[in-house]
């Protein structure tokens, strides 16, 4: 019987040790999980400060976006012809005309080229057509190109920030320190090709 008691005592020791270790560890774990009141207050204060800063940043971004939108939408309208411009009192012609008038009595190929051109320009983003007596103007924020209908097709003018060297260019004109006007002639719809569209994409971006 004495041997049995000794064995039971030996088997109880490891279990007792585990219980003591668990008791020692648990307060430490609890301390890690639950920071002191001062630290909790500091953390809460930091979080509140971050939220306030984030709200201020969001408010600033919204205000900047509104300001930018207002700038873009603000255009001057001529009281005589109702044409709109980005600049107040922009020098211009008040002799307006419809796009259709330019093609009246002209070779139907000219209209085919024009339709192909406009369809491609739509892919660049926002722009509008502003037809006057002498030409059909292409406007982003500012004027970036113009179309003149001729008997054999179209003459297309556009701007660039530097001279373009190409046999397709029939005329160049310096418009300012960083703007050069170019003209090409289009005889068929397939002339609205990748090279021309690259030039026009640049012109559209420059005048936006």
Descriptive notes:
Strands 3-4-5-6-8-7 form a 6-stranded antiparallel β-sheet. A hairpin with a 2-residue loop joins β5 and β6 (153-160). It has 2 domains: 2-73; 81-206. It contains 5 helices and 8 strands; from the N terminus they run ααββααββββββα. The chain is 49% helix and 21% strand.
Q: What is the string of SSEs from the N terminus onward?
A: HHEEHHEEEEEEH
What is the count of helical runs? 5
Count all strands and give the number.
8
Q: What shape does the CA trace take?
A: elongated
Work out the helicity level. Answer: 40-55%
Largest sheet, if any? 6 strands, antiparallel
Computed Rg: 38 Å
**Class inferred from helices and paired strands:** alpha+beta
Domains (count): 2
Question: What proportion of the residues form beta strands (DSSP E)?
Answer: 15-25%
The neighbouring-strand order within the major sheet is 3-4-5-6-8-7
- Let me know the average pLDDT: 80
Key features of this structure:
5 helices, single chain, 2 domains, 8 strands, six-stranded antiparallel beta sheet, alpha+beta, 208 residues, two-stranded antiparallel sheet
Helices and strands in order:
Blueprint: H1 2-33, H2 37-73, E1 76-77, E2 84-85, H3 99-103, H4 108-121, E3 128-131, E4 136-139, E5 143-150, E6 153-160, E7 169-176, E8 179-186, H5 194-206
Antiparallel strand pairs: 1-2, 3-4, 4-5, 5-6, 6-8, 7-8
